[in-house]
Design goal:
With 436 residues, the chain is α/β, with parallel strands linked by helices. Helix content is 39%, strand content 15%. The chain has a single domain, classed as TIM Barrel (Alpha-Beta Barrel).
């Protein structure tokens, strides 16, 4: 599918890729240890369609087919995640050895994420020791794959894992701790810093993290709405970016964290080679309304000091998320203004949308708009080095099960047959145009 209005050209060396995660696509659950997501999914009512990721896309057994899809797409890099529960099983790293070998043979750069929410069952991010165990696991992975992997990601979206899994209980492990979940954030950030040190000790470089961020818009100019939006911005954006980039928590947050916070922050703020941003949609936030709200399928309790509101006047995806490409430009330029020289080069490590159908023109329009918005941020002086589409394959979409499709490639979950969508062909042409 040729592009009728070619996208602007990005700088030479710009990295184009697609992303997936282990629990969402790998399957072969009987060949690894259980994760918190296995436990969560087995509880009735936790997953919308009652499904599990026991088989998912069966990527473990069909990875050669998926590598061929990557090669056919023409991406520079493939961001996947390493399953900590699989590594803990006998021979667990053997699969990733084969995958990395096949990617390298196909000319696709492997970019592993070392934690994408599938914590081994029995471990707990409320416990500081989990950060130490994570660093040990990272050392093991780096020792095995580091001769071929040149780009690493420590954690994926610790904000969502904290908020959805531990504060609101809609993701694994299903806790409803509200603000008592803050130690989970701190221990994940500590795990990141320890992982950076472990990777560097193993001789690895080019290390980043994949944090989700979004512009936060006040519901109105009223003081109560502005204050509420500012608080939400702290929780979603600054709680996870400030410690990494500035070496400190936002005012008042550090006092709520466990342990010797000052010493821990020295570890958390280990210098990064690049900073990964996952972006999907902005947030519109106002003062609490005294009632529970449901935004994008997430129930927000009435007792929170803010309420997330709908964003009107924009099309929405099948997930109900507003499509606002210009907010990506805003996010990146605001990050550059907020952190200045402390912000390393940026990579957009996830951007995508849920739509049904093989002729997915809405997905093409979404990606086209966001890539153009990304280029506007580059023109504005933001040092952006790469862009990864979420996702290569339709997959197990966490608490939504198989009811939401983000892939460039359709997966029939009964037969596991892969069928490239129109967006796959469109993105392939985009990549060819960028290299002409």
């Amino acid at each position: 599918m040729a592009t009728t209005n070619p996208l602007p050209r990005f700088p030479a060396g710009f990295l184009w890729g697609v992303s997936t995660s282990a629990h969402q696509i790998e399957g072969a659950a009987d060949e690894r240890e259980p994760s918190v997501w296995d436990v969560f999914s087995a509880e009735p009512g936790r997953v919308r369609d009652g499904s599990t990721a026991a088989v998912a896309c069966d990527h473990v057994h069909r990875h050669a087919e998926d590598v061929a899809l990557l090669a056919g797409l023409g991406v520079d890099a493939y961001r996947f995640s390493v399953s900590w529960p699989r590594v803990r099983a006998k021979g667990g790293l053997d699969f990733y050895d084969r995958l990395v070998d096949d990617l390298c043979a196909a000319g696709v750069r492997p970019v592993p994420t070392l934690f994408h929410w599938d914590l081994p069952a029995g471990l707990d991010w409320l416990e500081r020791d989990t950060a130490e165990r994570f660093a040990e696991y990272v050392s093991e992975v780096a020792g095995r794959l580091g001769d071929r992997v040149r780009k690493w990601i420590t954690l994926n979206e610790p904000a969502e894992h904290t908020l959805l899994g531990h504060a609101l209980g809609v993701h694994a492990p299903g806790r409803n701790l509200l603000f008592d979940a803050l130690p989970v954030a701190h221990h994940q950030l500590l795990a990141h810093g320890l992982a950076v040190r472990a990777l560097r000790a193993a001789g690895a470089g080019d290390i980043g993290i994949a944090n989700s961020h979004a512009p936060t818009w006040p519901a109105s100019g009223e003081e109560a709405d502005v204050v509420a939006a500012g608080f939400y911005d702290v929780l979603l954006n600054r709680l996870f970016a400030d410690p990494l980039l500035l070496g400190r928590y936002p005012e008042g947050i550090g006092d709520l964290m466990p342990g010797d916070v000052a010493s821990d922050l020295e570890v958390v703020a280990e210098p990064l080679d690049w900073y990964g941003i996952n972006y999907y949609a902005p947030a519109r936030v106002g003062a609490p309304q005294g009632t529970e709200t449901d935004v994008g399928g997430v129930r927000m309790p009435a007792e929170l000091p803010f309420s997330v509101r709908e964003i009107e006047g924009h099309p929405v995806t099948d997930f109900g998320w507003p499509v606002v490409p210009e907010a990506l430009t805003e996010l990146l330029t605001d990050f550059r203004a907020r952190y200045g020289d402390r912000l390393p080069p940026v990579v957009v490590t996830e951007n995508g949308c849920a739509y049904e159908g093989l002729d997915d023109r809405d997905r093409i329009a979404y990606l086209d708009g966001h890539i153009r918005a990304l280029h506007r941020a580059v023109d504005a002086g933001v040092d952006v080095r790469g862009y990864f589409v979420w996702s290569l394959l339709d997959n197990f979409e966490w608490a939504e099960g198989y009811t939401r499709r983000f892939g460039l490639v359709h997966v029939d979950f009964a037969t596991l047959e892969r069928t490239p969508k129109a967006s796959y062909s469109w993105f392939r042409e985009v990549l060819r145009d960028q290299r002409r």
